[in-house]
Amino acid sequence: MSKLIEFRDVVKKFNGVPVLNGVTFSVEKGEVLCIVGPSGTGKSVTLKHLVRLLTPTSGSVVVDGVDVATCSDDELVKLRDRIGYLFQGGALLAWMTVAENVALPLEECTKLPDREIAVRVRHALRAVELVDAADKYPTEISGGMQKRAGLARAVVRESDIVLYDEPTSGLDPVTSITINRLIKKLNKELGITSIVVTHDLQGALAIADRILLLKGGKAVECSTPAEFTQSQNPDVREFLAAMKGETI
Amino acid sequence: MTIVREPMWDDAPRSRTQALYRHLLQFLSTLGWTARILVSSVAAFPSVLLRRSGRADFSAQLYIVGIRTLPVITVVSLFIGMILALQVGLELRRFNQEIYLGAAVMLTLLREMGPFACGISLAACVGSAIAAELGTMKVNDEIAALEIMSISPIRYLAAPRLLALLVMAPILAFYCSVIGTLGGGIVGSTQLNVFFQQYISSALSIAETKDLFVGLLKAGVFGMLIGTVSVAEGFGTKLGATGVGRSTQQSVIVNFLLILMFGYMITRVFYR
Is B3 among the domain residues? Predict the structure, then answer.
């Protein structure tokens, strides 16, 4: 497999304080990488670098050979067309129904006929099991449903990379499992390369091909779920113990 | 242009002088950014009218700007006309010149108070709502989501609002002048013994086309100012709910100040 995404020694400072402090890792095509770690270690910041919502203080972020921070606006548009992004709160537009939200990127950025858009929207909503809520507004559905609608909007353009920012935070265990299954299903069926920022270790162990642990702005471990749970790295042991509720 | 902006500096200022210098640069940068929002929005006007979704948004904004503000604008302009007529009428009565009441009220309303009443009403009703709506979208990551989907927030959100304000502000300013003149007529006929017919004749005799067009120009400029400032404040919102409140407040304050300043400048240019 080839490297699709590369973080090369990325440093990001806010007000002089480094949030990312030399992060280096890569993601291969078709892979699911879960980024875990304590709050405030730069997990969401890492994700935002991939779509140039943030740019590195130093180092580089490369997606399919394109340096995200320095590429032209046209290249950025092409890159963003390939990337779906699921925000923590779903980021659905409040004045549109779920179906209209999902159709938005197709209506605004493609010249597809209305019938084709309707088919794609229905297909995306079926994939996230939200067909019945198609005509509801975001305020009329639960947080879990909003996230699933956001997920449908993220994949409706048939993106080959999807970034998930805390897809299961604030959700009940059953809904969390549903979302995690969806992420894995999309990865398997459509070959979508996925980066998932999460606090849900059980979910990460279930869906990830590799798990990256961020601590203090550094990538301290990047390994398969089996290797991760067996790792003797003290930071990993501490994180696993904290997740299990143990004291060290 | 990019709406989701990063801080200009990654490091903290090393001294007070540097902090002051950075504040100044930040202010100038924000001014430039606001100007770019105006220019980019105007450039996106054709796209708003050519796209089906753009036309729908534009129609919705016309309704919000033009129809939903009508009750407020009616009351504001009616009372401005009534106050104007009372104050001017009492002075004119001292010199037995009440017959000029209509002319005085009409001229003041067409040239200045009509566009002004329209401007402050739009800034309070529409500008604040735009800043709050876009600010909430910004803190909820909806603006970032649009950018990631390659949907320009300028074309999709800013341009329909600015175009609606540009179209509706002159119409509403004319409406303000008419309602204000009628309000003045009511006060004149009920409290100053000026016949309504005489009042209207006096008003129509003095009104010149230039006064009307300068008033409409002023209103158009106010509409663009209100739109640009409110959109820029909304797009620039940070720090959650507190930030939304601050942006809304800031948009109203800046709009009021700019309406006064630009009102004076346009008057100065056309009436020397």
Answer: no
Radius of gyration of chain A (CA): 18
Q: Do A80 and B144 touch (CB under 8 A)?
A: no
- Secondary structure (DSSP) of chain B: ---S---S-SS--SSHHHHHHHHHHHHHHHHHHHHHHHHHHHHTHHHHHHSHHHHHHHHHHHIIIIITTHHHHHHHHHHHHHHHHHHHHHHHHHTT-GGGHHHHHHHHIIIIIHHHHHHHHHIIIIIHHHHHHHHHHHHTTHHHHHHHTT--HIIIIIHHHHHHHHHHHHHHHHHHHHHHHHHHHHHHHHHS---HHHHHHHHHHH--HHHHHHHHHHHHHHHHHHHHHHHHHHHT--SHHHHHHHHHHHHHHHHHHHHHHHHHHHHHHH--
A62-79: pLDDT as tens digits: 998 899 989 988 888 889
DSSP strand pairing (A58-63 vs A3-14): antiparallel
What residue type is assigned to position A44 of the chain? S
The answer as to whether B252 is a domain residue is yes
User: In order of start, what are the domains of chain A with their CATH numbers?
Assistant: 1-77+159-166+179-248 (3.40.50.300), 83-156 (no CATH)
| DSSP one-letter string for B120-144 | HHHIIIIIHHHHHHHHHHHHTTHHH
Confidence of residue B261 (pLDDT cuts 50, 70, 90): very high
Q: Which A residues, 41 through 60, put their C-beta within 8 Å of a C-beta on chain B?
A: 51, 53-55, 57
Q: What is the ipTM of this complex?
A: 0.86
pLDDT band at B9; cut points 50, 70, 90: confident
| Pick from A105, A52, A83, A50: nearest CA to A160 | A83
Residue type, A79: L
**Are residues A80 and B145, on separate chains, in Cβ contact within 8 Å?**
no
- Please state the domain count of chain B: 1
Task: Answer yes or no: pTM beyond 0.80.
Answer: yes
Range of the domain at B247: 40-270
d(CA B228, CA B232): 6
Q: Is A82 strand, coil or helix?
A: coil
CA distance to A82, B87, B170, per residue, from B61 (Å): 32, 37, 15
Residue B119 in domain: yes
What average pLDDT is seen over chain A?
Answer: 87
User: In the A/B pair of chains, how many CB contacts fall below 8 A?
Assistant: 60
- From CA A66, how far away is CA A83, in angstroms rounded? 13
> Which whole number is the average pLDDT over B244-270?
94
Strand A210-215 versus strand A17-28 pairing type:
unpaired
A residues 211..240 contacting B (CB < 8 A): none
DSSP strand pairing (A193-197 vs A161-165):
parallel
Is there a contact between B150 and A93 if contact means CB atoms under 8 Å apart?
A: no
pLDDT digits (tens, 9 = 90+) for B73-92: 999 999 999 999 999 998 88
Structural domain includes residue B16? no
Q: Supply the pLDDT for residue A248.
A: 44
